What we know:
alpha+beta
Amino acid sequence: MSNIPIAAASAGQRDKAIEAIVISFAANATCRWIWPDLSQYMRAMPVLVEAIAGDAFRNGSAFVDADVRGVALWLAPDATQDEDGVGALIEKTVEKERLGDIEEFFRQLDAFHPHDEKCWYLPFLAVEPFGQNMGLGAALMRYALERNDAEGLASYLESSDPRNLTLYERLGFEKLGRIQVGAFDAVHPMIRRPS
């Protein structure tokens, strides 16, 4: 077990946690395929995080280290996402000629999501650059996976960074497939059964 203390984010850590996600995903190929312009990305990404994973903060399943350099936002099986908010954000911030590809990408994401079984969903795992390569991502994952295992529930995620695949596989995740639309690095939906 890691010696990095992990806990649920407090209300006062919420903004810093979202900032950690935004800065760590700034070089993510999928996010920058959606928003290639940096200033557009910086304005849109915090809104996307809130729309997709705001329930993690409200329900105590947003996990951080003491310095909030790393964050994992987990959604419970009954959590809600603001799908209308995501759609409005994409429509407002993406060039019209690219909307079809972006909509297809989100359609494929939804197609892989295990709607027929209860599972925890990890839409965002992020470690800001200053905290990377110190085991923080693994500590965040293990903390949540122990809870998921204790509840007897599967864990689901979509890996948008090929560098993370070995970590997820080492933790017991298996690839369900591959999503690729247009010219961006593939996203791999992955699931882990409780152990």
